[in-house]
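Milestone M4 deliverable, item 7.
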Amino acid sequence: MFIIAVFSSRNETLYFANMFKSNNIYAMIVNTPKEAGQACGISVKFDARMIDVGRQFLLSKPFKSFIGFFTLKYINNRQVVEKI
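Output delivered:
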């Protein structure tokens, strides 16, 4: 299962993704699913086991545009997005 971090600021999205990459943790930029609400259009996707790392990154810098974490999974070949 994957987590996506959704922001309303494109710059903060890219900065958050770079925090993962600079710590050698896999993360990628993906298009934000419409179910995640209004956002900048891109989100950071990472392994659900890294959620605590993501939370620590959020605490380390004042991310003002953070909307939330969402689970991203597939059920019967359908993408399901749920806010955590």
